[in-house]
UniProtKB/TrEMBL annotation, chains A, B:
The lineage of its organism: Eukaryota, Fungi, Dikarya, Basidiomycota, Agaricomycotina. It comes from Pluteus cervinus. This is Adenosine deaminase-like growth. It comes from the Eukaryota.
Amino acid sequence: MSSPTSSALEQYKAQRASLIEQDYLLRRDRLPSEVSDLESEADAVIRRIRTEEAESIWSASHESIPHPFPGMEFLTGKSIIVKTRLFKILSKMPKGGLLHAHLDATVNASYLWSLALAQPAIYVSTSSVLVKETLSSTLPSFKAMPKDFQSAERSLSGDSYTPGTWVPLNAARNSFDPALGGSTGFDDWIIGSMMISPAEAYGTHNTVAKIWNKFTNTFLVAQGLTRFMPIFADYVREFLYSSIEDGISYVEPRINFLTKFMTGEDGQQDIDHKKMVRIFDGVVKEVKDKMKAEGREDEFIGAKIIYSTIRFITPEELDWYLDDCLALKKAFPHLIAGFDLVGNENSLYPLTYYLEQLLRFKERVQKEGIDLPFIFHAGETLGDGTEADQNLYDAILLGTKRIGHGFSLVKHPKLMELCRDRQIALEVCPISCVCSRLTSSMPAHPLPIILNNGVPVALSSDDPSVFGNMGLTYDFFQVLVASEVAGLSTLRTLAQDSIQFSSLEGSEKEVALRAWRARWEKFLAYIIESERDN
Amino acid sequence: MSSPTSSALEQYKAQRASLIEQDYLLRRDRLPSEVSDLESEADAVIRRIRTEEAESIWSASHESIPHPFPGMEFLTGKSIIVKTRLFKILSKMPKGGLLHAHLDATVNASYLWSLALAQPAIYVSTSSVLVKETLSSTLPSFKAMPKDFQSAERSLSGDSYTPGTWVPLNAARNSFDPALGGSTGFDDWIIGSMMISPAEAYGTHNTVAKIWNKFTNTFLVAQGLTRFMPIFADYVREFLYSSIEDGISYVEPRINFLTKFMTGEDGQQDIDHKKMVRIFDGVVKEVKDKMKAEGREDEFIGAKIIYSTIRFITPEELDWYLDDCLALKKAFPHLIAGFDLVGNENSLYPLTYYLEQLLRFKERVQKEGIDLPFIFHAGETLGDGTEADQNLYDAILLGTKRIGHGFSLVKHPKLMELCRDRQIALEVCPISCVCSRLTSSMPAHPLPIILNNGVPVALSSDDPSVFGNMGLTYDFFQVLVASEVAGLSTLRTLAQDSIQFSSLEGSEKEVALRAWRARWEKFLAYIIESERDN
């Protein structure tokens, strides 16, 4: 047979190129004017390293990790990730803002534990007697006690321990049964109760429902420590500095205000929300001042708070929290960014359950001319047409500023169009999705669908202390290695959009974007230089 | 605070209903005129049972199945599925056509094995000595020998066995080492070599790349048996009858024509493709006649063949296969439906590798006025922007009639639009995707995205003998339980579209659709009746 004419082949290739172009037309990282020569050069370096390491690192065999691949299950893959050159490079990247993280899960669990051990006011108890077989499934409870509190117990692990009795933390640690590992076993047990292990995520708790149980428990444990005022300030400070260390220049954590009071230094549970926010505000100012004094003001723009409560309260209770949020907004207008309802959407109340309250609130802030939007979690589910999935309709109809997770958004062509048109950004948390079993691994995550449909995305870590994905480097890494489409333009767009779609306002946002751009240029130069040195 | 006015609430609810309607507007199962009262009633029954069984069956604990949930990993969930009332009902459903199945994987492995044991001409060998530790990873090879063939070996498992030597099948079975399980161990080993076990899919081979290795091996083993002429006819017959038994009224298997000759009854490998297709044709006619004689002609419309070869051949070799396919089409115009290239898209050649050959072929059949379309596998991958993912562009540009799998299509907004507009149906194989680790379980499968974007779908089983999803009942079951949107309209649309988008022509298709519709009405009546009896 004769060859197809070269013109037929040429025509086909032109058609193909045009089709690919159309297919990616909506992507926010495909605005061609924005790619500088420097970025092109750095992008080529990144892509080459990715291809090389897919072979040299991800195709090699690793002890005790039977199936390595780029974008693999994070909890088992992490030890390989940190060995890569790509990870080292990304750790230097200016990440922009962190727009989806739950405050009580933002600081390394070991660090929180070291803060707790320094507080003699803290006591520990368990609801059952500790035995080796059930140790890892038994939860510690923490409570800061007044100075005059007297405990009859000095040990948590003895036969004589009466469940529910409070034991001084350091006494409990020092007397911890050697059969349970002694003080090291004690530390491992506590830290394990605040984190999700690979064995849990991929074995014992390998469904969305079961992992949520473990997940909720990690918060119960951590909050017993973080909500003690002397720890709280240190905790927030560490969150900010470790974020800065990772290249994050702005944070917008969700703070759970469900509990109406936190515990003060004197062991009294009487620190109200206003006092709590004032502490937060003070730490943010302190860090900003310190950064400025070091000439590093570009590295930290600030922080705001998304007020959150949990979606198991009654509609009447919600009214109290909405009022409380509004009062805080009036007291700290520069700090309160929005309102959210958090918790497992699959088992707790949908937004429609609170419809009257939410509509009324929306009307009220509108009338009062206050900028206090909803920033709802919605669609964090595998359900199709379930209440959790349908929360997406309500989040959008109620005017949500962004969507937390929006994992099931990709099922909804009309909603993707609305998010694109109304510029509702999705707070996408790749590693969180893998740990919570919404997706088996990064290559199965719907992020490429979201990006190809032009929906803005702010990449987020969600609960880094629980999953171990501290900072944003891990999440950016997973995105970059799981797609051949993703490159430096993608990372740039994600980082830039995390500022663009943040709650920063007017000139604040301009300053943040300008500072970020300057750092991005330095990052590109660093990539190219690191390649020359290699 | 005052309540939002009831009109504000009403307005919200109307907006919400309208948004949901728009969101699902493209779905092919939402054409409202088609839902009869009978179907509405039956749908309510199905939905009620689904809700009940989600609780009574899927939330209960099951021995050795730690995490049951609707749509769970098929290989472990199967034993629960068969206990449900929903499965029993779906087994009676008229399924329409089976448009994506590889012939050598369409008959229960145990049945194939019983056919093999009845053939004294068949010999077996292994490439290494069998020991307990490596038994399950050692592959048996089969070969039909001429009558005068003499083997020096009577046993496969003795110390004296020389790897590569052919042993008569029954002798090998009868003499199989008791330490390896004797004849039962022999049977288990062979059948295990043709199927994927839960331990393999979710443990030892838990990545797409590793499962493909095992998968390829199952075909190597099975083809040693299916491509022996006396077995081949029985095999095709059993495929047809077991499909009919499951409510499938038309099949369009892909047959792998890579090997140019199959082995005849005399042990000579000299049965060419024309003779092979003639045998297939004869069996189809025989079954049609028998069904007609029983007054059951509505239950079996017929079968066509999609000619396939493997995407590791050279472009020059492809020319031979394209010529061969065209010659078969001319000899059996009623039987040859199209042409495909099969095999692991992630590791073998992309369509672009064969571009010249494929374009030339397309031009040629067009010029000759022959209806012989491509029906390509494409996008059966987790890759984003990889060659396997990009096969979708080429499949569509080359005019594919349907797309086999198209798993990554959901990433491509423009291609989804093209498939919808040009009515290119996707052959979606849910259970295959779970077994091949493209998706962790059914709730994570992209089918809802495909349906919500109005892309036509033909639900298929792919390799039922390898995965154990014989017929189509299992696949329909998994689709129904993993979505609250899916109901009887969805099943009806999927079944109907499997005829609509088949290679049946003109009046054939009309007959098939008419017959199917009558059976669907009976199925609805059966559902309602079964509810009354319950």
